[in-house]
């Protein structure tokens, strides 16, 4: 069954809110009534778990991998940078390909590529091999991240979209919490290559289970290879600039100029298209645009906080590595606990106010950790980080729901790509902010300053979310 043409949001007389609400889900299946749909939902959520686990365990294993491959720690950072760059480069193209060729087909290609690349990581004999494999992992993971919600939107009913987004947030939060512990457990008994090998059986099940996803035809639009190249160049230059901004400031500045130039050329090329690679049509929708901006700010603040907390615990509060890991667990676990509740209530109340309340809770928690005299009493650390988790859970579910409901069903793929791009841009900005603070201020004060900066960014995210207005209330997909 072919999807109808996307409403030309912002150009015709259809109001953005009407365009979002007038489109009904394709193949909307009641989850409880269709076992096949449970398999379909499981394949999407487990695929997200694989991508998140892959990132979490690789991050914490960098010192071990560097020692095993006999490379300097600074070079081992490219194991992470290559994956992050590939994700940013491929998110929007994968979303566009999903709309053109069909979500299920591109999603399955992404899972298959991720599996092949994961096997390459498990067999990697050298650092260049591993970096290349991580780059391919990022390309495959981008298809999963870009199309996950779009596929869930085709499987569940319109009333269950908020719940589906909550399930997705729950899967990501639990994976983020389990990743470091899982990685540490594997490294204690096996070689680092098993960090990747253990993901293969689960990935194979996902590939087989994706057959249960609805096979809806795409729009058959041809891919614009020049636009894809400009998009890739934009984000590759940006990520590399972020990685070298401290050691090679002049090179970073040149790369930022190159990135900006390519972005301007891409926008000029895509401006007149009905379904542009960069979703300019959706960004003209007030609610979608506000959600994207708020998402970048929230993830920048969250990342600055998450990166700062281990340094603060170890350098300022004198905690051992094991205790630092244990103190970090309540944040993602609280996100996992609040996500289902947030998804239920976001179906009934204003997503704008849920985003605002969540952003302020996250800001309050980060500011509390930075300002509370924890050297005297560390007991307050856990409730403050749980407040961070509560705030992020509320914000993320409501903001994502608002973002997808602001987009017509036929543009769900590129909406997912934009959502992932906003998240990664925010995370990159937060990491760069943390790096700058460490280079500008003493090591004992930089973490607290980063926590304060993260709190301020989330205050801005909360305030901007209020601009969604009263119309961001319980709309149906």
Automatic annotation (TrEMBL):
Q: Which Pfam families match?
A: MFS_1
**Domain of life of the source:** Bacteria
All residue ranges annotated as the Major facilitator superfamily (MFS) profile domain in the record: 40-470
Q: Identify its membrane topology class.
A: Multi-pass membrane protein
Keyword list, A-Z: Membrane, Transmembrane, Transmembrane helix, Transport
Q: Where in the cell is it found?
A: Membrane
Q: What is this protein called?
A: MFS transporter
């Amino acid at each position: 069954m072919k999807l109808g043409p996307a409403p030309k949001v912002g150009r015709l007389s259809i109001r953005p809110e009407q365009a979002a609400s007038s489109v009904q889900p394709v193949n909307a299946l009641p989850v409880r009534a269709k076992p096949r749909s449970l398999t379909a939902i499981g394949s999407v959520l487990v695929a997200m778990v694989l991508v998140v686990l892959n990132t979490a365990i690789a991050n914490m294993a960098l010192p071990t991998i560097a020692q095993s491959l006999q490379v300097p720690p600074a070079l081992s950072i490219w194991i992470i940078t290559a994956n992050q760059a590939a994700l940013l480069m491929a998110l929007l193209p994968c979303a566009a390909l999903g709309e053109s060729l069909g979500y299920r087909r591109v999603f399955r290609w992404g899972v298959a590529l991720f599996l092949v690349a994961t096997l390459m990581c498990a067999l990697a004999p050298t650092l260049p091999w591993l970096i290349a494999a991580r780059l391919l992992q990022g390309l495959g993971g981008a298809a999963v991240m870009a199309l996950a919600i779009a596929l869930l939107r085709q499987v569940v009913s319109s009333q269950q979209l908020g719940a589906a987004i909550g399930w997705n947030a729950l899967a990501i939060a639990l994976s983020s919490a389990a990743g470091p512990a899982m990685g540490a457990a594997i490294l204690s008994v096996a070689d680092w290559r098993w960090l990747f090998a253990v993901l293969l059986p689960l990935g194979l099940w996902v590939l087989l289970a994706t057959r249960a996803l609805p096979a809806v035809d795409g729009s058959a639009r041809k891919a614009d290879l020049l636009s894809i190249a400009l998009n890739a160049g934009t984000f590759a230059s940006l990520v590399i600039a972020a990685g070298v901004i401290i050691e090679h400031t002049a090179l970073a500045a040149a790369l930022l100029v190159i990135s900006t130039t390519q972005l301007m050329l891409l926008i000029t090329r895509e401006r007149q298209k009905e379904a542009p690679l960069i979703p300019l049509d959706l960004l003209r929708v007030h609610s979608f645009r506000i959600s994207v901006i708020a998402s970048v700010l929230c993830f920048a603040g969250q990342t600055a906080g998450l990166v700062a907390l281990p340094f603060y615990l170890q350098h300022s509060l004198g905690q051992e590595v094991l205790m630092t890991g244990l103190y970090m667990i309540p944040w993602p676990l609280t996100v996992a606990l609040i996500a289902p509740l947030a998804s239920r209530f976001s179906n009934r109340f204003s997503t704008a106010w849920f985003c605002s309340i969540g952003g302020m809770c996250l800001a309050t928690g980060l500011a509390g950790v930075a300002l509370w005299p924890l050297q005297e009493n560390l007991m307050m650390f856990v409730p403050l980080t749980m407040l961070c988790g509560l705030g992020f859970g509320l914000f993320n579910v409501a903001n994502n729901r608002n973002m997808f409901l602001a987009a017509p069903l036929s543009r769900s793929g590129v909406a997912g790509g934009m959502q992932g791009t906003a998240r990664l841009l925010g995370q990159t900005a937060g990491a760069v902010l943390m790096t700058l603070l460490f280079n500008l201020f003493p090591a004992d004060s930089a973490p607290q300053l980063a926590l304060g900066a993260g709190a301020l960014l989330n205050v801005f995210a909360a305030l901007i979310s209020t601009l969604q207005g009263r119309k961001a209330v319980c709309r149906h997909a």
